[in-house]
Amino acid sequence: MANGLLSSVRHARFWAGGSRSLSRQRGASRHSVNLLRYTLAMAIGLGSVTGVLAAGMVFGMTSIALGGEAPPLSGGRALFASGGDDRRLSAIGKLVDAGDLAAARKMLAEEVASRGESYPTIFLEAKILFREHKYQESLRVLERVLALDQRDPEAYKLVASDAILLERMDIAEQALKRAAQLAPHDYLVFFNLGALYYTDSRFAAAQPELEKSVSLNPDYVPTQLFLGLTLEELGKEPLALDCYHRAIELAERSGFKGEQPYLYPGRLLYRENKLEESLPYLQKAAKANPQSCETLCLLARIYTSQDRETDAVAALNQCVQADPKQSEAHYLLSRAYVKQGRTEDAAQELALFQELKKHEQNKKDYRKNQRANP
Fold first, then answer.
1. Phi first, then psi: what are they for 193, rounded to 5°?
2. Nearest Cα to 340, choosing from 299, 311, 298?
3. Cβ atoms of 36 and 260 closer than 8 Å
4. How sure is the predictor about 39, in pLDDT bands with cuts at 50, 70 and 90?
5. Confidence (pTM)
6. The two domains 1-16+32-181 and 257-363 share their CATH topology (first three levels equal)
7. 3-class DSSP state for residue 259?
8. Closest among 223, 169, 236 to 199, alpha carbons compared
9. Residue 220 to residue 169: CA distance in whole angstroms
10. CA-to-CA distance for 290 and 286, rounded, in angstroms?
11. What are the tens digits of pLDDT across the range 308-339?
């Protein structure tokens, strides 16, 4: 698999578009694609850099300690040609973690000029490029990293991060599977693999990966949420609610920021027509994130069912202030205005809705994702 993935990374760095949507059409309409993408990328790619430095040092030095020659790098430099400086590399890693990329890049250039390239310096270059949102360039550097050593799970996790943000889920899946083999106790690897399967509507495959992640770290809120979403899709709604309730407990205990622990059970109960039970969850979700249009639109629907049109209009206006291009909010406003006898306002909102839907149709990308060669 490792050699096949290296070939895929080499192939992918020449590919700059023509991808399919991050999730399938039906999933995109039901779930927050932006949340999925953000969670996947952040959980894999924006963790501490300093851990990989030690791992890279171990992997690089093992070859030398066993009597093998250090693999050559560009410019004729040898891996750890000068031995490296753990403290300096650690300081660079901390700058990357802190987001001070200019300072990190300056120190990294000085380190390479002084001591030559090493496995950790090349990985740091890939990490900086990732943080600079240069995902294809990061993959190009990771090609060199994997050519030097294919036993570091952190390298595969960063490959997955880049691939996810390039919407190359085929490469991300291969990378995460390899990382899981190398780091079988890393809950984030299994979380991200499960979340990736979920976004690709492979729910039966997602469940065991997410359950493995929960077994390794039951206190990680995103895993509980994605497991709940997966169980919903598999028709196991009571188990999904159990996951959401655990997520709420963990979120309130840990200070987790975001509306999702409340939104997801509220949305599930709404779909089950349990509006009275749904309402408190959605109200808490709106309090956690007053700009969540999904939450506000669901609240408006419940308020309308309770003949609370004033509250519905207030929620919908709050939504369009946060996102004027939210087509559903304009549609619901048109209906609410009709009930209030505001026919001109209703016609205006309906026209906005129709224009936005037309624009959404024109923006659809029908190009298929290019798959990696096996």
1. -65, -45
2. 311
3. no
4. low
5. 0.76
6. yes
7. coil
8. 169
9. 23
10. 5
11. 999 999 999 999 999 999 999 999 999 999 99
Contact call for residues 190 and 167 (beta carbons, < 8 A): no
Cβ atoms of 108 and 91 within 8 Å: the answer is: no
**According to CATH, what is the number of the domain 257-363?**
1.25.40.10
Using one digit for the tens of pLDDT, what is the confidence trace for 266-278? 999 999 999 999 9
CA 190 and chain centroid, separation: 13
Rounded Cα distance between 349 and 343, Å, is: 10
Q: What is the per-residue pLDDT across 341-366, written as a single tens digit (0 to 9) for each? A: 999 999 999 999 999 998 888 765 43
Instruction: Render 295-338 in DSSP notation, one character per residue.
Output: HHHHHHHHHHHTT-HHHHHHHHHHHHHH-TT-HHHHHHHHHHHH
What is the C-alpha separation between 315 and 297, in angstroms, rounded? 7
The Cα–Cα gap between 119 and 366 comes to: 40
Which residues neighbour 20 within 8 Å (Cβ) at sequence distance 6 or greater? Answer: 167, 365, 367, 368, 369
CA neighbor of 44 nearest in space, from 208, 140, 226, 172 = 172
The domains of the chain are located at 1-16+32-181, 184-254, 257-363
Q: Does domain 184-254 have CATH number 3.30.70.100?
A: no
Assigned fold of 1-16+32-181: 1.25.40
Q: Of 84, 152, 69, 148, which is closest to residue 117 (Cα–Cα)?
A: 84
Q: Residue 359 and residue 63: Cα distance in Å, rounded? A: 57
For residues 316 and 71, give the distance between their C-alpha atoms in angstroms, rounded to a whole number: 61
Beta-bridged to residue 78, according to DSSP, are 72
**What whole-number distance in Å separates Cα of residue 311 and Cα of residue 326?**
18
Say how far apart CA 306 and CA 270 lie, in whole Å: 13
Are 247 and 224 in contact by the 8 Å Cβ rule? The answer is yes
CA-to-CA distance for 363 and 60, rounded, in angstroms?
47
Instruction: Specify which residues 81 forms β-bridges with.
Output: none
Task: For residue 295, give every residue at least 6 positions away whose Cβ sits within 8 Å of its Cβ, in sequence order, or none.
Answer: 259, 263, 266, 282, 285, 286, 289
CB 44 within 8 A of CB 160: yes
